[in-house]
Design brief:
- The complex is a heterodimer.
- Chain A is an alpha/beta fold.
- Chain A is 36% helix and 29% strand.
- The termini of chain A are far apart.
- The relative contact order of chain A is 0.15.
- By secondary structure, chain B is of the alpha/beta class.
- Chain B has helices at residues 15-23, 39-48, 57-61, 77-86, 101-114, 128-138, 164-167, 171-187, 281-294, 302-321, and strands at residues 4-9, 29-35, 52-54, 67-70, 90-94, 118-121, 145-153, 191-199, 210-217, 222-226, 240-247, 251-255, 260-265, 270-275, 325-326.
- In chain B, helix 8 (171-187) crosses helix 10 (302-321).
- The chains are: A alpha/beta, B alpha/beta.
- At the A-B interface, strand 7, strand 8, strand 9 and strand 10 of A face strand 7, strand 8, strand 9 and strand 10 of B.
Chain lengths: 329, 328
Amino acid sequence: MLRIALLGCGTMGSTHAHAYTSLGEAKVVAVCDIRLEKAEALASLLGCVAYTSYEAMKEKADYEVLDVCLPTYLHCRYATDAMQDGKHVFCEKPIALNLEDADLMVETAKEYGVTFSVGHVLRFFPQYQAAVAQIKAGRIGTPALLRTTRNQAFPGWSWENWYQDSTKSGGPEVDLAIHDYDWLLYNFGSVKRVYAKNLGTGHPKQMHTLAILRFASGAMAHVEASWALPKGIEFRTTFELVGTDGQLCYDSSRDCPLKTQLGSDEEASLFYDNPLSDEMNPYRAELKAFLHAVEHKTEPVVTAAEAIAALQVALAAKESAHSGKVVHL
Amino acid sequence: MKELRIGVVSFEHMHAQSYTQELVKYPEVTLVGIADENEKRGKEMAATFKTNYYQGYESLLEQQLDGVVICTNNRDHAKVSIAAAKKGIHILVEKPFATTIADAHAMLEAAREANVQIMNAFPMRFNPNVIAAKKKIDAGLIGEVLTITSINHGKIPGGWFIDPALSGGGAVMDHTVHLGDLIRWFTGSEIKSVFCESGELLHHKGIDDTGLVMIELNNGVSATIDCSWAHHTNYPIWAQVDMQIIGTKGVIELKAFAQVLHLDDQANQRFEDIGWNETGDEGLIKEFVQVCATAKTPLVTGLDGLRALEIALASYESSRTNEAVSLS
């Protein structure tokens, strides 16, 4: 059984920790966060040791896999350190904020012969997988017009508000839209041109990206990712895939099986749930696939090269929004 | 109430049917006649609406009209509009306003010289849901508008619509103008630049059927338009007009044609969405009747038509060059 250390116990660390609780293939032996209470909460969930320093964890804990759930700007530093130590690394998306860091991570993994993958979890979401299965069965003919949205309020919960600092998060172009970029590239092939706009910097708590992609296949895509919705609005994802013989659509707010409305005299609130069994949990599925690749020394489902390709599209969108020009890849 | 003598030139564009149905609801309106080069269609429509048939539009324009509704193919908008203006007749011309910028300018110039009003048929401006959204935006409910995404999907039409010589273009020409107009209306800003990816990706009918347009406005707002004829034959409704307007204080999601019943039509083996609210044609014709009665400036003008046409034509240019096209 693989022994895992989880670095970063924030939102994604907690999501991974809950996924590990039902994964028989692995045992989380250590969790680490500079915030003791965050580390202790996950340590108690997983029945393991809590650390507040990566160095202390590295020195004392015995593990083969490091799961990096840190803010993006810290990915490269800790991932490469662990690789040099012979650890296999699973890193949250995006792989990095720039191609230099991403390349260094890939080269280091190669040099030290460790398995490395990135959390492009959308590929494991059952509704996205179901869409791909329908497309592969020819149900919409040749895909032509693709639209994805991934919209939410500003993620104000983050540690030191790192999302707001686009030198640390990359903004929604890199942090959020990259989910869809990876999914689109993986399923619809390479992108040859990108044209994009964002809101600029005039509204620090509202960030938003709109991108139009043209694929080598001739298909085109409209990708929208937002941190500009009002506070309290539910996170919403949609896709609309139009092909020569049909159309597939999904909208998380419309196609929601469980809506809970709560209210008092003062205010009402609405919660959207999409209950999934452990087996259908996409985070569990991505981790399970990675651990399988480690154990069997096979290529992971999400390769480092694919993570870099998604980053390239995201960076092209950023560059296009900045320059006002089309970016050719 | 003064009698208003109104004629309809051509039923080439099927919107002539609903426009004419609306026109005849007004007691002051006399439907003087229907002109249509296609004799069979023209006579049928003249019989339906109990009016006179003219083969040539020139003869209809001789009948001392106060107003004319022009629903020819897109190319002929200019020819008929200019002839009507010269006769001193107020004009409602189907969208797109024209197929070239030169034609559009000539139409505006002819109307100005003759001191008649020329109105472009943008029924979405009169759609009750669009109006409600506009009121919310104007009231500052969502604060300052930051960005807009919009979709106008529909089914691919046939006939002259898919003959570029008569239509001026496919989906990009047909659908960009509606949303381009609403984006200008909602923001009160003109267009700075246009980028477009378009092509013939879906239907293999020899004309562009798929398009994604990105607009930058002078006020800094960016907006996208999906103008594709993306609905396949079995799609439960013909037209879809959706907009998302994100502001500093909130978001409006507009689905202009969401007021439908869902019909499971077992006999025809299909699902159909049946609209039950006004579409916008009602308000459009009401406005045109008022224009004819008072010669007032219409709520949506020929100049609005030109501005929307500029977006569509810039979209084609951008598609050819793979560069953003500057309009300012």
